[in-house]
Amino acid sequence: MNHDLYKIIFRDIYKSFEGKKVLCGLNLDIKRGETLVVLGRSGCGKSVTLKILLGLLYPDSGQAYVDGQEVTNLPEKKMVQVRKKIGMLFQGSALFDSMTVGDNVAFALAEHSNKSKHEIAEIVSRNLEFVDLAGSEHLMPSELSGGMKKRAALARAMAYQPEILLYDEPTTGLDPITATTINALIRKTQNEYGVTSIVVTHELDSGFSVADRIAVMDRGQILEIGTIDEIRKSANEFVQTFIAGPK
Ligand SMILES: Nc1ncnc2c1ncn2[C@@H]1O[C@H](COP(=O)(O)OP(=O)(O)OP(=O)(O)O)[C@@H](O)[C@H]1O
Ligand SMILES: [Mg+2]
Q1: Phi, psi (deg, nearest 5) at residue 100
Q2: Residue identifier of the C-alpha nearest atom 9 of ligand 1
Q3: Rounded distance from Cα 239 to ligand 1 centre (Å)
């Protein structure tokens, strides 16, 4: 395994829930600094894959690595250290509804860093500005539109200056213009911070607009991986049907 080239590696991951096979020998390598999009139908196992990387779920067999360190079956204490490298934008954005936007963004820093209140406030302000929500610290999540929530969630995911960003369906449920804004923000985050990103989505437009490479997933396996061009030229029948979109 080439850990110099690949920041994240999944090897032969199997995962079942109550006898139902969800991941069936998943192999996936994510290069340092790239944005890799995992495209696949609803229920194919995308969110489960991300949760395994975060140590929120354990595979039945197989390994996942971050920077050459195996994260599957890592004791919780060590997993906490790995999670500090990873920012996650959860499906549905999942802000804490009872906290202001500012406290949401500050949350991980307040919990896990030794930074002063003043330093944290500065980071929060900078991150909100980055996602074009400057000055919205005092707002409650209920006061935000869907697109604003996603942006606030991105500011929160970035607060810890993660090396890795995981996006779970970042544009699902948004109107096309708002989705375009989020896609641009994903690109901007990669360009300005050099992060390694995995974007999982079943939205083709979004996937194609942010990807350096695309992996097409079906029934718990990666069927094809490559540049946008390579995916378009794929000989795999499922891949062709999937990227052709709904008839
Ligand atoms: N904690 C769990 N317990 C039991 N079954 C689960 C659990 N998490 C996921 N599953 C099942 O695993 C399968 C894959 O789920 P997953 O959430 O990874 O799909 P997905 O590809 O992210 O779909 P979507 O695009 O709709 O978000 C589904 O059938 C789901 O019901
Ligand atoms: Mg999902």
Answers
A1: -65, 165
A2: 48
A3: 21
Q: Which of 10, 14, 46, 167 to mutate to test the pocket of ligand 1 (most atoms within 8 A of CB)?
A: 46
**69-73, 163-167, 170-174: range with lowest mean pLDDT:** 170-174
Q: Give the residue, by CA position, lying nearest to ligand 1 atom 1.
A: 17
Question: In the predicted model, is pLDDT for residue 226 greater than 80?
Answer: yes
At 35-87, the pLDDT tens digits run: 999 999 999 999 999 999 999 999 999 999 999 999 998 998 999 889 989 99
Q: How far is the CA of 192 from the centre of ligand 2 (A)?
A: 27
